[in-house]
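User: Hey, quick favor. My workstation is busy. Could you predict this chain's structure for me?
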Amino acid sequence: MSITTGDFRQHVTVQTLADKKRKHEPIVSLTAYDYSAARLADEAGVDLILVGDSLAQVVLGHDSTLPVTMEEMLHHTRAVRRAIKRAFLVADMPFGSYHTGTHQALENAVRFVKESGAQAVKIEGGTTRVPLIRRIIEAEIPVIGHIGLTPQSVHRMGGYKVQGKTAHAIDALLAAATALDRVGVAALVLEGIPREVAAQITAEVETPTIGIGAGPECDGQILVFHDLAGLTFNPPAKFVRCYCNAGELISQAIHSYCDDVRSTAFPTDAESYHLPREARRALAEPEAASGAFGK
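Assistant: No problem, here it is.
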């Protein structure tokens, strides 16, 4: 669908996200990892596109987000950047890219802006991340926070489990959200937490909240592109809504292609290139061929 309204022609910025929270206009977010997906998302009017470290699983075939590297994230963010004309582009800081110190985190955040065209970076973690997030923001780079179920903490958490189910855990989430709000994050991803807790956080912070498995009271929502389109091979999480089964359609198309090649139904004459008339005649007449092809 082409973009025809004036509003969709405006670039989404940090201020746009803040305005949407103030006006109670939901923020539509989606991941993308390549030019094609990003272009479809941008043209559909998605507000925020995240090149997530979920790239490791849905594109590169790893069983967690941990193995993906800075170079891989930069490569895919550059591809997504080429497709976007409107949406706000965020890149995930992969595991290991900010864990050994503020200097390392700042250097890698700068790389995302300079080398891939990202407009913000996303960092997982709560109060312990505040010093390095403050330093990145001071360097004029917007930061998206991420609390709750943080996939880079899968080993510490003992799996991908809902967070914030006890009074102590809820207090920790509220403290983390408040600390990130005060340091000035541009948005805050709430993942895998009870709806009631996400609603309380959303009401108490000025920062726009973006939910994934956190209920409808968040200021916006995000899904993984491959989950939305039915392109994953594992059973979806409870919070995932599959809007189409593109995987089945593509599989059927590939099977049909295999059948057509094996039966010689593809390619047809109409799908083949042909020599010009003079060249065909020369090819059919060996005596004339040397002259025709020798010129």
